[in-house]
Amino acid sequence: MTPRRVLVTGGNRGIGEAIARRLREDGHQVVVTSRSGDPVEGLDVVACEITDSDSVDAAFAEARERLGGDVEVLVANAGVTKDTLLMRMSDEDFSSVVDTNLHGTFRTVRRAATAMVKARFGRVILLSSVVGLYGSPGQANYAASKSGLVGMARSMTRELGARGITANVVAPGFIETDMTAELSDEKRAEYQSAIPAKRYGQAGEVAAAISFLASDDAAYVSGAVIPVDGGLGMGH
User: Fold this and answer.
1) Residues 17, 32 contacting (CB under 8 angstroms)
2) Residue 144 contacts by C-beta under 8 Å, 6 or more apart in sequence?
3) What string of DSSP letters covers the chain?
4) Confidence band (pLDDT; 50, 70, 90) for 225?
5) CA distances from 39 to 13, 47, 61, 71 (A)
6) What is the tens place of the pLDDT at every residue in 180-223?
7) What is the dihedral sign for C-alpha 231, 191, 21, 164?
8) What is the pLDDT of residues 65-95, one digit of tens each?
9) CB atoms within 10 A of CB 86
């Protein structure tokens, strides 16, 4: 595997942290972003608010200094949820989730693409969700933001593919995280019964898919949506 310079947004905890640690194990140089920029043991962290273009620019500039060059692999993982039923969802509930998950990803992708085009190499990996393709009650805002990433990656593939840049989507299902740990036993059992694998996924299993897409072996994979969901989405 060719060592690359990698930036993982929202890489300070949960799935993002697992991705960052796996890519480091693979031999890549990795910088992660978080809103606070607070240190995380064993990881190089820069502060970034992805809803602010100036903050994104500053984070990329700092990452470039720490990595010794421009970002070659971008893993856009940062995201938020504000779940509520459609008729109770406020404009702010909807717009804040879309601005972070979709527009925020756009800001980071746009910033990374400039250097990738010049280098004629790049790997862009967007973290979507089975919800973005499958739907989920109470998550119209989240599902809309995550499904939009598919169109973004496929448009990028057609626009930038000739420059040696790939753009792919990983769509996790129910993964063991702090968030799922807070569910009641009844809810956990209900969700698990719908998964053909009959278990929750592990963050490391998502990280393994990212590892492949960042590797030399994935040079001819672009515009793909790779589910890591135990069969829940069935290709939706």
Assistant:
1) yes
2) 94, 98, 102
3) ----EEEETTTTSHHHHHHHHHHHHTT-EEEEEESS---BTTBEEEE--TT-HHHHHHHHHHHHHHHTS--SEEEE---------GGG--HHHHHHHHIIIIIHHHHHHHHHHHHHHHHT-EEEEEE--HHHHH--TT-HHHHHHHHHHHHHHHHHHHHHGGGTEEEEEEEE-SB-SHHHHTS-HHHHHHHHHTSTT-S-B-HHHHHHHHHHHTSGGGTT--S-EEEESTTSSTT-
4) very high
5) 11, 10, 18, 20
6) 777 788 888 988 999 999 999 999 999 999 999 999 999 999 99
7) positive
8) 999 999 999 999 999 999 999 999 999 999 9
9) 11
What residues are annotated to the active site? 142
Identify residue 32 by its one-letter amino acid code.
Answer: V
